[in-house]
Amino acid sequence: MKILLYNPDNGLTQNFMPHLWMFLLQSLTSPGHEVLLIDGNTRPMTDANPVRFAHAQGIGLVGIGAMTRMIAKAYRVADASRAAGIRVVMGGPHVTEVPDEALGRNGGPRPADAIALGEADETWPRIVADAAAGQLKEVYTPVDAFGQEWKPSLQEYPPIHWESLDLRQFNRIPAFVRPLMSHLGYPWETFHLIPIESGRGCPYGCEFCTVTGFFGDSIRFRTKHSIIDELLRLKARARSTKGQVAVFFVDDKHFWVILFWAPEASTKEVSPVDTIQEAAQYLPIGGAHARGTRVIQITAQMRVLVAIEPVDGRKGIDSLARLCQEKLAEDPFSGCVFVFRSRRGTAIRILTYDGQGYWLAQKRLSKGKFVWWPESDGASKPLEVYEAQLLMAAGDVSRVRAAPMWRRVNALR
Ligand code: B12
Ligand code: SF4
Questions:
Q1: Helix (H) or strand (E) run with residue 347 in it
Q2: Summary count for the chain: helices (H), strands (E)
Q3: Residue 12 to residues 77, 124, 137, Cα–Cα distance (Å)
């Protein structure tokens, strides 16, 4: 089967480098299928152009990926492809956020036959096999053997054959300038900016960003070996084409390195990989249970205070302790158990001081949200210990009734 992967342009600005997803899915396609790539940023097309191209090439499946900014164009090309009888599968961040839209389940038109939710590294080969067998399903989600949503490991990252791929459409040197390059003293005629991944995932969960929801809040790394292998492929390309290749590390830590690569560069230049891996290590935060032992015990003598407003997931001990003082007007050294909720409502953090130092525990739900959270005009609200325990299990505290307190026990001295 012939497959066309199409990345739409946004009609306003141009991307300065190709999108990685196309090359990744191309590498993950089983042999026996041919994958062609069109990036609208480098080959601007009307809505009908990709369809004409697909017909001329005998394409059996069109795959379209888009951020929200390009989604209108993506849908128009998808509509035109389906109208011409070509099956369409869509994926990427926008479709994952609003899957009903692409399937026409929200009352609008239906641009896609099938959608790939989340990371498609493992679902793509299935999509291709199903499409080739005429059995395309509507929704493809990465799940484990228990049906739980699953983020693929990057340990077996597929080799992207940069050294031999047709990258002509991504050459940043305009055609009319190429013949002049040698006169200008530059012995090369191509310049490619190539995206490379070092890892996926971000622990911060900023409210406005899709990355933590999409890639998860723990960071999955590729092996150094596989990154170096990819860099060496690029180096081979730079050598054989007498071109220049620059590398753009796309990862979710916003630690991007652009490495300008001269054809004669030595392997020593690969060392930024070490820097990236080191810089990207995040300190793990202890959970409420470590090796089966409770590290924060919540007893009937303890006072539990829940912060009403959600907090930024990046806050650590010092910032949360300051927040206790400044926003909750409470003494963080009091021994009180302070409970904070993340903005997405999928994680909580618990801070308490035990006389020697602070404990900070975090619970992140694998599925679902902390559905119930106290409401108050103040900055915090006290909870009974049994309520706090239910809250930590993401339960609905408003539905629980217990016997009233008769005589409170004091904190142990
Ligand atoms: C690098 C990058 C850029 C770079 C380069 C873009 C490029 N050419 O690659 C630059 C700086 C230019 C950029 C710009 C912008 N970006 Co940007 N960018 C990224 C970043 C960090 C990496 C993209 C990447 O390569 N990821 C790795 C690949 C492998 O992942 P992926 O693309 O998601 O693909 C996987 C799946 O989604 C799926 N998939 C994707 N497409 C398809 C298609 C099919 C058919 C299938 C089956 C599967 C599939 O399979 C892939 C493998 O699992 C992402 C964040 C991130 N970590 O992804 C943000 C991100 C994509 N950018 C984002 C945004 C908002 C922008 C801007 C609009 C910002 C702005 N306000 O200007 C602009 C838009 C640019 C434009 N031309 O319109 C958002 C998009 C959110 C959304 N709802 O769409 C993201 C997710 C970041 C975020 N904060 O949320 N960006
Ligand atoms: S730190 Fe960056 S990638 Fe992570 S959630 Fe915030 S904006 Fe997104």
A1: strand 347-353
A2: 11, 18
A3: 17, 30, 34
Ligand 1 pocket: which of 21, 23, 150 to mutate (most atoms <8 Å of CB)? 21
C-alpha to C-alpha distance for 160 and 195, rounded to whole angstroms:
11
Cβ of 24 closer than 6 Å to ligand 1, yes or no, is: yes
**Domains of the chain with CATH codes:** 2-140 (3.40.50.2300), 168-280 (no CATH), 304-399 (no CATH)
**Which ligand has the nearest atom to the CA of 250?**
1
As given in the structure block, the two tokens for residue 170 are 């991504």
Q: Which atom of ligand 2 lies at the shortest distance from residue 314's CA? A: 1
The residue whose C-alpha atom lies closest to atom 69 belonging to ligand 1 is 69
Model confidence pLDDT, tens digit, residues 282-317:
222 222 333 333 345 677 778 999 999 999 877 888
DSSP string, 22-67: HHHHHHHSPTT-EEEEEETTTS---SSHHHHHHHHHT-SEEEEE--
**Ligand 2 neighbour 212 (Cβ under 6 A):** yes
Beta-ladder partners of 191: 244
Counting ligand 1 atoms within 8 A of each CB, the residue from 16, 68, 69 with the most, and so the one to mutate, is: 69
- Determine how many CB atoms are found less than 10 A away from the CB of residue 280: 16
Q: What is the pLDDT of residues 183-194, one digit of tens each?
A: 888 888 889 999
**Cβ(206) – ligand 2 distance below 6 Å:** yes
- Return the ligand number nearest the Cα of 26: 1
pLDDT, tens only, 247-260: 888 876 544 444 44
Residues 170 and 39: beta-carbon distance below 8 Å: yes
Query: Pick the residue with more confidence: 294 or 230?
Result: 230
pTM, two decimals, is 0.73
Q: Which residues pair with 221 in a beta bridge?
A: 199
